Amino acid sequence: MENEQPILITGAARSGTSLVAGIVHLCGAFGGKLAGPNASNKKGMFENREIRNTITKPFLTSIGADKMGQKPLPDRALITTIAQTQAIDWRRRVMAILFNDGYQIGIFFYKGAKICLMWSMWHAAFPNAHWIVVRRDDESIIDSCMFTPFMRAYKDRKGWQSWIDEHKQCFTEMANAGLKMRTIWSNDIISGRFGDIQGAVEWAGLKWDEKAVRKFVDPTLFHVKQRS
Predict the structure, then answer these.
(1) Nearest to residue 186, comparing CAs of 172, 165, 200, 166?
(2) Which of 65, 194, 199, 202 is buried deepest, with most CB atoms within 10 A?
(3) In this predicted model, what pLDDT tens digit does every residue of 135-153 receive, in sequence order?
């Protein structure tokens, strides 16, 4: 089980992680029983509900962090220490859920915006994972946070900017630690530029399905600002 090479999809909430997870799912990765559409994610959240509700959120609560990954953010140094003794059990619990959901063989994925905040635990549990970090320009993330009901931690743009900056620090830490990682800009996907996401999908061992992806991507659900 140590040789499992899942796809782990993360990024600050409201960056387009669900968009990317939906594409990975369409291209053949197994996700288990996934959270479906809601008012804020009309195509679906594509996050394994059991992993989120019984592993990720309870862990954040247990270390005094916000279970939504907003405020307070987790102590990443503490997580690194905990991972030294709990990573094997973490992997076992994740795999037990996936097997119960019907996983047998092939590539599986887990999408969670919060997992970049606890990346060292996931890396210790799945050291061979392919990570896809989803990025979006800061202003668009803040705009979305300000109008999304479950994003409640901050009331002004300055607060959300500080939260985004912490996520950027996580991405730097992940890169410096040598994780197998690709960065995808969601605005490129919405604008019809599929080169990077196709490359990431194939890099992670899946087969790109252009027809299915084009049918899935709906620009009307995503406010686009062009990246300079």
Answers:
(1) 200
(2) 65
(3) 999 999 999 999 999 999 9
Domains present along the chain, CATH in parentheses: 7-221 (3.40.50.300)
DSSP code per residue over 14-63: TSSHHHHHHHHHHTT-B--SB---BTTBTT----BHHHIIIIIHHHHHHT
Instruction: Report the C-alpha gap between 52 and 34 in whole angstroms.
Output: 10
Under a CB-based contact definition with an 8 Å cutoff, are residues 134 and 21 in contact? no
Does the reported pTM lie above 0.85? yes
d(CA 156, CA 170): 22
Tell me if residue 127 falls in helix, strand or coil. coil
The Cβ-side half-sphere exposure at 208, using a 13 Å CA radius, reads 12
